[in-house]
Specification:
Helix content is about 65%, strand content about 0%. The protein is built from seven helices and no strands. Helix 2 (about 10-20) crosses helix 3 and helix 4 packs antiparallel against helix 5.
Length: about 120
């Protein structure tokens, strides 16, 4: 959102006034310190930036993924799943972007293969 706002040449204060929220709230959203904005606000943001189709879909997708405090329930899963959740929680702040991208790619690949009915192991 910060990038879109910068391109538009708008300040947080200006944008907040148009959207009917506080500049502090927008700042918290931009820095990932607030939970998901509601669907109405997401639509207002898309309208504010005159976003259409793919751009608006990207903003909606990112907003749905935006949740700074995630809880992972591993009850009923294998001990390895609990270990992974704990390792990730303890080290995520130390991982660089290429490593995070690799982890995300692995998880997404597994999802796609399971959805297509093909089981596959790790791709490393």
């Amino acid at each position: 959102m910060r990038e879109l706002r910068t391109v538009k040449g708008a300040t947080q204060k200006d944008m907040a006034q148009v959207l009917g929220v506080s500049a502090a709230y927008l700042s918290a959203l931009e820095h990932g310190n607030r939970g998901r904005p509601g669907p109405g606000l997401i639509m207002q943001i898309c309208e504010y930036f005159d976003l259409i189709w793919d751009q608006a879909d990207d903003v909606k997708r990112l907003a749905m993924l935006s949740h700074p405090r995630v809880t992972v329930d591993t009850s009923g899963l294998s001990p390895m799943a609990t270990e992974l959740a704990n390792e990730l929680a303890g080290s995520i702040s130390e991982l660089d972007d290429p490593t995070l991208a690799w982890i995300l790619d692995e998880i997404r690949a597994q999802k796609e293969h399971k959805q297509s009915g093909v089981e596959q192991g790790p791709t490393h």
